[in-house]
Amino acid sequence: MTVSSSAPLVFDGHNDVLLQLYRDGGPSKANAFLAGREGAIDLPKSKIGGFGGGFFAVFVPSPTDLEHKFREMTKDTYDLALPEAIECNDALPVVAAQIATLRELERLGALTICRSAADMRAAFAAGKMAAILHMEGAEAIDADLHMLDVLHAAGLRSLGPVWSRPTIYGEGVPFRFPSSPDTGGGLTDHGLALVKRCNELKIMLDLSHLNEAGFWDVARHSEAPLVATHSNAHAITPHSRNLTDDQLRAIAESDGMVGLNFAVAFLREDGKMLADVPLTQMLKHLDHLIGILGEDRVGLGSDYDGAVVPKELTEASALPKLRQAMKEHGYGEDLIRKLCHENWLRVLELTWGS
């Protein structure tokens, strides 16, 4: 894998590979990533599609009837209740197993865990997949934030304070359509302390699942660029998970960025979890995001292995189709390269300081 102007590598804002490997058996199943596995991302598919890496999310799943959830999300309107909070002691073993899986992938030579932008550039140059250890939901972090320091030492460089359920730090948005992202209260005192400590440690804060009140609390208290790793434009798809134009303007003012989410419910204007979404709909969201954020503050955040995505882009090997669609839409080589990976490098250098 090498970066080129004709087919730039995709560095992606969000995937759930670690969750799927955890469900399959954890570190002992890491070899499947190298050999080829069912799912969107593995080493063979990545080499075909020019997937150069991304944010590998550690996520503690809630007991959920996925069939019911997806069935509800095909209706004209829906409002799924937030799952219950998960206790720290219950979250820790799941988090440990997924981090151990990522470290095993590194040991096997599948990827490099990157702690700096320099690490990412070195991985690209060496033809290695670049992986950022990200955590989606801070359930495993205690109120005193001791575990945050431990996780940082283990390589954590990006954190979403919530998924779509409450934590001691704040509230996530429900899966609700149509809906404003203004669905509940803001950050707690613990949440404000978390923002401060993440700034001190230079851990990027991911705003993608925070409700609007929590978003504005981070905007007021964080000293770092505002980043939503996998979110779309509320003006096009009025889903609770998408960002309003006011939020996008705040991200632009902070010199942050947004990664386009491939999940179809956040792309389709009817909000339905149905995969017959043309790539032109993704470009419509990209146009809107670029129109407010500018060409330097938009990237990709696929949600691969964690969402229903357009049927033309079901796995990483299909990414050339998206690059070609960008080209046919009129995006030049420089812009495509920025969207594919350069903008992520830019904002991570600003956040991490290297």
CA radius of gyration is: 18 Å
> How much helicity do the residues have?
40-55%
The largest pleated sheet is described as: 6 strands, parallel
Count of alpha/pi helices: 13
Low-confidence stretches: 1-5
Head-to-tail CA distance between termini: 23 Å
Structural class category: alpha/beta
DSSP summary, beta strand count? 11
Global morphology: globular
List keywords for this structure.
single chain; 354 residues; alpha/beta; three-stranded parallel beta sheet; 13 helices; 13% strand
Short précis:
The chain has 354 residues and is of the alpha/beta class. It has 13 helices and 11 strands.
In terms of topology, how is this protein built?
Layout: E1 10-15, H1 17-24, H2 31-35, H3 43-49, E2 51-58, H4 66-72, E3 78-79, H5 88-107, E4 111-113, H6 117-125, E5 129-136, H7 146-154, E6 156-160, E7 176-177, H8 189-201, E8 204-205, H9 212-221, E9 227-228, H10 245-253, E10 257-260, H11 279-293, E11 298-300, H12 319-329, H13 333-352
Parallel strand pairs: 1-2, 2-5, 4-5, 5-6, 6-8, 9-10, 10-11
Antiparallel strand pairs: 3-7
Helix pairs in contact: 1-5
What does this structure look like?
The longest helix has 20 residues, at 88-107. It is built from 13 helices and eleven strands. It has helices at residues 17-24, 31-35, 43-49, 66-72, 88-107, 117-125, 146-154, 189-201, 212-221, 245-253, 279-293, 319-329, 333-352, and strands at residues 10-15, 51-58, 78-79, 111-113, 129-136, 156-160, 176-177, 204-205, 227-228, 257-260, 298-300. It is globular, with a radius of gyration of 18 Å. The model is unreliable at 1-5 (pLDDT under 50). The strands form three sheets. Strands 1, 2, 4, 5, 6 and 8 form a six-stranded parallel β-sheet that branches. Strands 9-10-11 form a three-stranded parallel β-sheet. It has a two-stranded antiparallel sheet with strand order 3-7. Helix 1 (17-24) packs across helix 5 (88-107). Helix 7 (146-154) links the parallel strand 5 (129-136) and strand 6. The chain is an alpha/beta fold.
